[in-house]
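2.7 Reproducibility. Because tokenized structures are sensitive to small changes in the input, we list the exact sequence used for Anaerobic ribonucleoside-triphosphate reductase activating protein, including any N-terminal residues retained from the expression construct. No trimming or masking was applied before prediction.
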Amino acid sequence: MEILGFQKLSLVDYPEKLCSVVFTGGCNFRCPYCHNKSIVNQCGDTMDEEKLEKTLLKRNKYISNLCISGGEPTLQKDLVSFIKNYKNLGFSVKLDTNGSNPAMLKELLENKYVDYVAMDLKTSLDDYERVTGKSGFEKKIMRSLKLLKTYPIDYEFRTTFVKGMMTVKSIEGLKQMVHNSNRFVLQRGRLNNEVLLPNKEMTSYTKEEMEALKEEFRSFVKEVRLNS
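Resulting structure tokens (single pass, no recycling of outputs):
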């Protein structure tokens, strides 16, 4: 596992739980507003897995929940064995993913190795290439989306809203994608010079605009949340 970041304590990355967060290196998407620039570009020193395990075991009396984020964790070939190990050690595991590897996601779900999955939906399917900078992922995204709706697991879909990236048409497409899902989380994109690909066309939604968007999705999803 290429581990490029570690946060001992997070109050926000695992719903209703305190957790530690591991950040894996690399991503197969290039969303301009991404705030994990160094991790996506695989910059920095990797963390030793044995050292990580010792650190987590010392703290698991107080924190026994682990969030695996990135980058995109499913690019790591040994992700399944990594998660399986922590499940065997008694940890509850949350996975953050962009949904581009449905085969690995299915393996994790079938074996009950993950307890919670947060899948990023970047935009509507017909706009994925423009936002992510990559083509040919639409079918995989839909396969992952359907897997999460099918398996008995706690999950959420979430989207980062950035003006210049999101259009009225893409918002309408997102509504259909998340229709009848358990939970949809709207995230207000925060822009600065440290994002992956700074662009003058990108601006942030106001808090009032995000509240209005939240109301638009309320009739499509069982639960809608706003991370502002």
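DSSP finds eight helices and nine strands in the chain.
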